[in-house]
Amino acid sequence: MFELDVRSRKPIYEQLMDKIKEMILYGILKPDEQLPSVRTLSAQLTVNPNTIQKAYRELEREGYIYSQAGKGSFVAPSQQQPGAAQLAEMKERLLKLFAEAIYLGFTKSDIEKLYQQTMEEQERGKSSD
Amino acid sequence: MFELDVRSRKPIYEQLMDKIKEMILYGILKPDEQLPSVRTLSAQLTVNPNTIQKAYRELEREGYIYSQAGKGSFVAPSQQQPGAAQLAEMKERLLKLFAEAIYLGFTKSDIEKLYQQTMEEQERGKSSD
Amino acid sequence: MFELDVRSRKPIYEQLMDKIKEMILYGILKPDEQLPSVRTLSAQLTVNPNTIQKAYRELEREGYIYSQAGKGSFVAPSQQQPGAAQLAEMKERLLKLFAEAIYLGFTKSDIEKLYQQTMEEQERGKSSD
Amino acid sequence: MFELDVRSRKPIYEQLMDKIKEMILYGILKPDEQLPSVRTLSAQLTVNPNTIQKAYRELEREGYIYSQAGKGSFVAPSQQQPGAAQLAEMKERLLKLFAEAIYLGFTKSDIEKLYQQTMEEQERGKSSD
DNA sequence: GTGGTCTAGACCACC
DNA sequence: GTGGTCTAGACCACC
Known about the structure:
Four copies of one chain form a homotetramer.
Chain A: H1 12-25, H2 38-45, H3 49-61, E1 65-68, E2 72-75, H4 84-103, H5 108-127
Antiparallel strand pairs in A: 1-2
Helix pairs in contact in A: 1-3, 2-3
Chain A binds a DNA duplex through helix 3.
């Protein structure tokens, strides 16, 4: 299911968050679908339960999942109205990454193609219910 | 010259790297232009010399600047032919960020506008010699 | 009658307690009025009977309702003379919340308006017999 | 400095957050003042460092303090512009608490006095630099 | 020395 | 069985 790099500089809990976010964004994990329990994932990945829990807690804080004590953790329905701060932060991240991409020679049409590709992958994920 | 945020969670040396990268990407620092010495910058920013040193070392490792023993550090000429690995990594980063942006509701035209804006800023920087 | 949020972090039994307290405080449930039986409410809300039981038990402990074996649970008549400990505790809670409210910029007139609004809602509830 | 109740239902990290918030709100801890280090407080309170860190992390998330790895944790300058969500949540909390206070017989003038008292305590704290 | 991450476990409330 | 809290400890990057 997941592949984690324990040697990476990036903390394990962040790697986990990225993987799960990706699966949500690409529609592989559907809204209200149950995620593996903290213990199960801990055993599967041979990662400490506390580390899994930290990832889940942060994902909940960011609005990607919701957790219920005694029940489990579930994929949150996608946000309808992102906050102004969230939009501003994303804009900043896009501007910075574009600056680097242009430096490497990426053209407007390269960017458009990649955006289109991402859109299509998301559509595929969502329609494959 | 620089403004560092000591309250930020981001390490000082990373903030410094980002600022210098930005000035290179936007053409404010030109190829082969000399950067301030570690000592000068350390005094100007009231930041530990080791921290400046680390930022310069990392920037050199990433190919943004080069150092000449006894002379100083200089902006590297922009790479004409980025490696295949670099292009693949950038493509990956763009795909991931687009996935998040789409999740937040950014449209194709939003993306195009931001790309255009970045392009123009870079042009302005380079032509202002 | 009730709407429970299964996605909330707040335990179901606490949500239930809050709803019932609210209905008592706003006069929607009158003194000595009978509450639905544990079984009935359990079926209506599709919530485990143990959970309903726990909410009723806690509400009784706090003095909001009373139970008669074999008859059912009833709204307690509003306390005419709250204990000194209760008053002191409420005073403490108000002081703490005001400190936070002031920190967020709530003015004296904001506070007065909210108090007035609460008063009017309670009056409306009680007079609608 | 602090008194924690290990037997309480309220988690230790929340008790700690409340105490620190209180000291910030009443001006006992001033903006940019350094908090005791995680290790120091852990030893003083004989509470696990992880628990202290959890309290600090949450306080940072709520905007009361800021932490710098390698430096320490500090009181954040008071927020100038609280978010709309924050204001809405506080309004809700005030309405609920007023409903309970009215039930216990607190009058408008009681509420006003308590608000006034809180204001004065904050002023005293801030001016006693 | 500082905060941040992580392990290996225990115990708790909730359902 | 589930997530949430907590301990006792180790190691890391940063300054």
